Amino acid sequence: MTKNIMIVGVGGQGTLLASKLLGHVLLGQGYDVKVSEVHGMSQRGGSVVTYVRYGEKVYSPVIDRGEADVIISFEKLEAARWLEYLKPDGLMITNTQEMEPMPVVTGAAAYPENLIEKMRQAGARVDAEDFLGIACEAGSARAVNIALLGRFSRYFPEIDEKDWKDAIEAVVPAKFRELNYRAFAMGRSA
């Protein structure tokens, strides 16, 4: 059976590295994996979405509305924006950070309030935490992606923590590995 994971955020937050690392872990488990950046802009500030699909045999990298088993979100408004893609029994793991989109910055709109509560009221299982704070505590705000993956890893106890560390070693440049190991461990245990 194919499983569907979406990673959503804002350009510059490391969504693409997170999806590459997740794909690496899943390939190492023997799954057929398709990873695709299907929407967004890589420049800072634009919405970025990647799909990670895995299973015995995966034919398409695309996830439709109502098909995501898990959505990993780097920002609350992005979580709410992509909520309709989550299965009724799906899991939303979200950073509680708020990054103001341009309409809010210019004063044309207000940042929506109570997004976590609204997502829960809509029926989503929401795991929300200040992963930016965790990343900063680990040594760099740029490690928020790895802190989020650390939390995500708790929901997959069948994947050994060593496999995640091996993927970090394979995907992350050597000078950033210790920071990323810390961010992963802190996100996992938070």
How does the major sheet shape up?
Answer: 6 strands, mixed
CATH superfamily: Pyruvate-ferredoxin oxidoreductase, PFOR, domain III
Q: Looking at the structure, what is the overall shape? A: globular
CATH class: Alpha Beta
What is the rounded Rg?
A: 16 Å
How does the helix and strand content classify structurally? alpha/beta
Helix content: 25-40%
Indicate the CATH architecture. 3-Layer(aba) Sandwich
Number of domains: 1
The count of strands amounts to: 6
Instruction: Report the total helices.
Output: 8
* Residues in β-strands, percent: 15-25%
Main sheet: strand order: 2-3-1-4-5-6
Low-confidence stretches: none
Q: What is the mean pLDDT?
A: 91
Find the CATH topology: Pyruvate-ferredoxin Oxidoreductase, domain 3
Q: Can you write the helix and strand succession as a string?
A: EHEEEHEHHEHHHH
**Cα end-to-end separation:** 30 Å
Keywords:
alpha/beta, 8 helices, Pyruvate-ferredoxin Oxidoreductase, domain 3, 39% helix, 190 residues
Can you walk through the features of this model?
This protein is α/β, with parallel strands linked by helices. The protein has one domain (3-98, 113-189): Pyruvate-ferredoxin Oxidoreductase, domain 3, CATH 3.40.920. Helix content is 39%, strand content 25%. It has helices spanning 15-28, 76-82, 102-105, 115-121, 131-138, 144-153, 161-171, 177-189; strands at 3-10, 32-40, 47-55, 68-73, 86-95, 125-129. It has a six-stranded mixed beta sheet, with helices on both faces. Strand 4, helix 2 and strand 5 form a beta-alpha-beta unit. Helix 1 crosses helix 7, helix 5 (131-138) packs across helix 8 and helix 6 (144-153) crosses helix 8. It is globular, with a radius of gyration of 16 Å.
